Backbone:
């Protein structure tokens, strides 16, 4: 079977998101029910591989994963966290949801707060929105001069390459939905009291700028799609497929590490003999 990391990897060259379908399921021919079962089936192996990556820290391993989730409002970053990242042991996961920068953060370069949030060895780190907000929102809202945004693309590439070289596997996912599907999801939030908390009047303000955001995404994807940290565009109109696709990308990254349990850092047989002598005194 073709790897999801191959099927969903952004092709090189100019990006036109309108030409990439949002309601397909590349690499999977089953139904929604089949997809949900397939995702659940990833759980045991994903948890096992995550634990192996965690255990290898005692040998000085620098391996870690950073999952970057970007997408238009309602594209499903939160749902992906619950259904896909939720398969992993929460002790080995660190999630950061980046909001508008604080006064202290604005006093530094835009990557300063990102550096502080990078996962340590053995962890799966997840960015729910990320440093890409500083080239997406800032471009659309004209918060930053274009020359500085161009500099930021280069800075992001250098930043990511540095961390990949230091042992981080970066999985960048653009959750790709259609404007029609976004409208359905926004309507659902307005019709169910249990979803009011997810809605903000500003959502419609951003929706009115859909074309500008699309173009900002296209430029960001073009400028920061690198060999070290490539982009994957995830068709996300079907929530179940979105969750499965991200789960498969995580699984493929972990499998690619060829993780083994670390050898004992002590004399196993000697410790067995010590235990047999049972030093516990009641």
Residues:
């Amino acid at each position: 079977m073709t790897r999801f990391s191959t099927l969903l990897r952004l092709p090189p060259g100019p990006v036109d998101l309108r030409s990439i379908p949002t309601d397909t399921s590349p690499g999977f021919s089953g139904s929604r029910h089949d997809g949900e079962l397939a995702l659940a089936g990833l759980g045991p192996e994903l948890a096992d591989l995550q634990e192996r990556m965690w255990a290898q820290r005692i040998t000085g391993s620098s391996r870690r994963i950073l999952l970057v989730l970007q997408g238009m409002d309602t594209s499903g970053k939160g749902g992906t966290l619950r259904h896909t990242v939720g398969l992993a042991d929460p002790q080995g996961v660190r999630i950061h949801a980046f909001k508008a920068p604080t006064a202290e953060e604005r006093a530094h370069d835009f990557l300063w707060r990102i550096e502080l949030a990078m996962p340590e060895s053995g962890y799966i780190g997840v960015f729910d929105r990320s440093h890409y907000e500083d080239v997406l929102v800032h471009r659309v809202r004209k918060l930053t001069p274009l020359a500085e945004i161009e500099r930021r693309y280069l800075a992001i590439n250098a930043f990511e390459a540095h961390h990949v070289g230091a042992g981080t596997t970066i999985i960048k996912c653009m959750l790709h939905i259609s404007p029609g599907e976004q409208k359905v999801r926004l309507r659902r939030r307005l019709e169910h009291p249990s979803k009011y908390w997810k809605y903000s009047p500003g959502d419609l303000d951003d929706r009115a700028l859909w074309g500008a955001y699309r173009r900002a995404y296209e430029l960001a994807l073009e400028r920061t799609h690198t060999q070290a940290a490539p982009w994957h565009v995830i068709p996300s109109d079907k929530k179940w497929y979105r969750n499965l696709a991200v789960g498969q990308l995580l699984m493929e990254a972990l499998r690619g590490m060829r993780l083994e349990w670390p050898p004992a850092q002590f004399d196993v047989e000697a410790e067995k003999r010590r235990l047999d002598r049972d030093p516990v005194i009641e």
Remarks:
- The domain at 4-276 is CATH 3.40.50.300 (Rossmann fold).
- The CA atoms of residues 10 and 60 lie 33 Å apart.
